[in-house]
Every structure is written in structure tokens, then in C-alpha cells.
Amino acid sequence: MWTKEGLVELIGEKLRDYRFILVSNREPYVHRYASGQIECTQPASGLTVALDPIMRACGGTWIAHGSGDADWKMVDEQDRVFVPPDDPCFTLRRVRLNPRQEERYYYGLANQALWPLCHIVFTRPVFRPEDWQAYREVNQIFADAVVEEAGDAPTFVFIQDFHFALLPRMLKERNANLIVAQFWHIPWPNPEVLRGFPWKEELLDGLLGNDLLGFHLRFHCQNFLDTVDRILESKVDRERYEITRGGKTTTVRAFPISIDFQRHSATAEAETTEREMKRWRSALGIRDELIGIGIDRIDYTKGICERLHAIDRFLAKYPEYRGRFVFVQVAVPSRSQIPEYKTLEKKLETLVNEINRKYRRWAVRSWRPIILLKRCFPQHSLTALHRLAKFCMVSSLHDGMNLVAKEYVASRVDEDGVLILSDFAGASRELTDALVVNPFSEEESLEAIRQALEMPEDERRKRMRKMRAVVAENNVYRWAGKIISALLKFEFTTSDESHVSFSASGSC
Ligand code: ADQ
Hints:
Elements: H1 4-14, E1 19-23, E2 30-34, E3 37-41, H2 46-58, E4 61-65, H3 71-74, E5 80-83, E6 90-95, H4 99-119, H5 129-150, E7 155-160, H6 167-174, E8 178-183, H7 191-194, H8 200-207, E9 212-215, H9 218-231, E10 235-237, E11 242-245, E12 248-254, H10 261-269, H11 271-284, E13 290-297, H12 304-317, E14 325-332, H13 339-358, E15 370-373, H14 379-388, E16 391-394, H15 403-411, E17 418-422, E18 435-437, H16 442-454, H17 457-473, H18 476-487, E19 492-493, E20 499-500
Parallel strand pairs: 1-4, 1-7, 4-6, 7-8, 8-9, 9-12, 13-14, 13-16, 14-15, 16-17, 17-18
Antiparallel strand pairs: 2-3, 5-6, 10-11, 11-12, 19-20
Helix pairs in contact: 1-2, 1-18, 4-5, 5-6, 10-15, 11-14, 12-13, 12-16, 14-15
The structure holds adenosine-5'-diphosphate-glucose.
């Protein structure tokens, strides 16, 4: 079993003499002005939530875009700040982007071109040459920061996500003394879909600058191999999952991401969670109603509207649940500058109002079938909500992994509760004891809701126990440990052409 201590040991033993740099677009800690004070918060993002414990364990430098209005007040002359504020143990190097760069690289190319392209949920990607130009520019700015932080030392660079497809090649061209790995947190589509991307050759060539390229699922790795095979001149080895181009080999591997299971379970067991559960009940005005929950960023890939339609049809088909069942949807707005996201937020509100109005005449006391909470909650508060719920519904139309599903399971220290999980979320490959549904089918989803509410206790417990064992074992330290172990197999080329190599056997 991989543990935080095991990972720290591996890092201490094998990486001690080397620099470790992590790169992501989003920073793990944001400083903002709030009522005249500077506040530090952690954004609601699967990626930062997953990587924060790793950086706490290994120290090193995290390079990310400084997006908070008070960020620049907190950094030193090199744009660095030690974080987390309550227990500083790693360096955050903030990168400055101007509004045009942020608009075109982040909202444009990353979120309006690559995001819909890779998720295939029938939202048309937008390809603007100016966005691609800004994407190149920003990748170059991050390359400058990495090269500066690495200096002459042998350095491992671990890049996150689809914001930096060009960065690996840029780094390798500027400093051969770097070992570069990248994890792609979203799905990789089939070659036919990627063929439509106007700068596909440059994108793929950039990614092949990596020594190691990771995806959540083997299926995404296969799609990547197929895509390169179809589009670029290269040698694709399907036995070894390796691609060689221009004499350089990239290893492609599946590393299913996860959460800090122990930390989540410990929070769920804490006395404060019981108090927080009571607080939720009173805040929601809930007595003995059956509760279902959904927790998401507001994003068209998460299938929130599809889920609400299924709840509507569930109440229509099974009227005995009117007045007895409440669905709490926690939905934090994200990427609100993009029109599709703003429209979705409005659509969601309208839909909730419509459904609540429709069932008003069956209202017992002030019963409403759906409670929509549009804000960010601290993790311990979400944990208490997990504990209150008869079921949690994850109905992504497509999702690389989905950490909410794993967090729900980790919170259920009482071994109760049912997970309804989309077949199109990567998590469904591991959590086979969930009620796995096709989120595009309202009928399937509404029947899963009924099954979740009516499932006998012993079956609920049997399924939850099995899912807890899976998440406990496949935790985030295992994810990081496997990636670091794979990285250690590569050799640094030093200036005198000798090689420094490692044994890849981890201590965990
Ligand atoms: P996301 O799509 O952002 O990330 P997801 O896996 O759904 O990620 O996780 C979202 C995270 O945000 C969870 O930790 C959740 O608890 C938190 N969160 C959601 N709503 C919140 C709220 N209202 N308040 C506070 N926290 C909230 C991408 C990919 C995923 C992949 C992750 C990690 O799209 O498929 O699982 O990266 O690789």
C-alpha cells in the first residue's frame, strides 16, 4: 500500500540530489483582497487538489500562473512565495501573463479548442490562429521560468495538462539536462477527432518532447498512439507503448489519478464532521428526507442538466418520493468569461426553478426537490455533505477521471451510501461497484436513482466496502509514486557525456 510516508521516503532516497519542478496553469494557492485583508485560498480544481499533497511531501518548486489580485504583493523579487501559508514547505513561483495572453491562451486555445476537442460532448471547438499564437507565447514564457529555476542542476520537470503541449519540446531544445514528464488530465480522443485540429503536427511534436507522457486510462494511451501513428512521421511501438521521433523516444503510460484517501477518511471521522452535518441539515431545512447530492464545477462535460432532467423524470415516474426526496446540487461557477459557461450557468438556474415550480403543489412544508448551491465549499464541509447523502450522482458526459466520485467513497467511513457513476468517467473503470449508468439515457439514470434509494443495507455496505478498498489502495501517493518510479528509469545526460542513472525500485 502506498502511503504519504512511503512517497516521502522514496523522494528522500532517490530525488534528494536533484531539483523537482512542477508546472501547471493554475496555482495551488491564490492570494486575494477580501474586505481590506489579504486572504489565501485553494481553488476548486481536481488537479490542484491531487497535486498539493505530493508537493507537500517532496518540496521543490511549483511554477504556475499568478491569477490572484493580491498575488504580487506576496512574492519576493524572483516572484516566489513559500506555501502553504499554515505550513510552508514548498516554493510557488508565479508567472505573469498579460490580459491578452490569458484571454487567448487560457480561455481561447485551452478551454474553447482543446477542452471540447478532447471531451467529444457535442460542443464545437473554436480554432483561432491568434489563440494558437498566444498559446505558443505562453508556453515559451513558462519554458523561460523552468529553465531559470532548473539552472545547471539535473532536474525533473513534471508538467500538468493540456495548457502546455508545446512546453516539453521547448524545454528539451533549451536544456538537455532535464528529464521531462507530462500528465494529461483530460481524455485523449480518437485520431479522427484530433484530425480536425489545425495545428495538430506542432501539438503532437511538442508532446513528443516528453520522456514520459501519462494519461488516466490505457484507452487514452491507445488513442494517443493511434493519433501519432496517423498524423506524424514516427515509429510507434504498440508492445512497449513507446513512440520514437527524430531519434528521441517518449514512453506513454496510464496512471489513474486519485485522492489522499487517508486524509479524507480522517476528516470524515472527525468530531467536527458530525457538527457540520447538523449544520447542513439546519441550513438546508432538512428533517428526515432522503438526500441525493451532486458536486461539480459548472461545466458542460459534467452532465449536470442531464442529471436534473433525470431527477425530474424520476419524480414524475415515482410520485411516492415527492416530499420525501431532496437533491442537493453544489455547483461552483468556472470559466465564466466563456459564453458557453455563462449560458450553462443561467440554464441550470432556470431548469432548477422550473422543476421546483412544477412540484410545488405537492410541497409538504417548504419542500423543494432540488436545492442549488452555487459556491465553493471547504473540503470538510463537502465531507459532511457526503456523509448525509443516501447517494452521490456523478453523471459526466465525458471525464478523464472524476475525483468527486472517489472523495464520496473516501468520506463514507460508515460504509454506507451509493455512488451513481457515469460510464464515461475514467473512475468507472476502477469503481465497478458503483451503479454505472449511461448519462445520456434519462431512463437509465432515473432507474439508478430509484435503485440507490431502495437498495438493501447489506448490498450498500458490500458495494461501499469494495469501493473503499479500491480507493484506499489506488490512492494519490500510488499515482505519484508510480510516475516518479517511471521517471527514475530515465538517464540524465551530463555535460561530460557520462550518464547518471537510478534504480527504479520504489521503497513502497
Ligand atoms: P476537474 O474537471 O476540475 O479536473 P474533478 O475530478 O471533477 O475535476 O474534481 C473537481 C474537484 O473540485 C474535486 O476535488 C471537488 O471536490 C472540487 N469541487 C467541486 N465543486 C466544488 C465546490 N463547490 N466547492 C469546493 N470544491 C469543489 C480535471 C479532469 C478530471 C480529473 C481531474 C484530476 O477534468 O477528469 O479527475 O482533472 O486529474
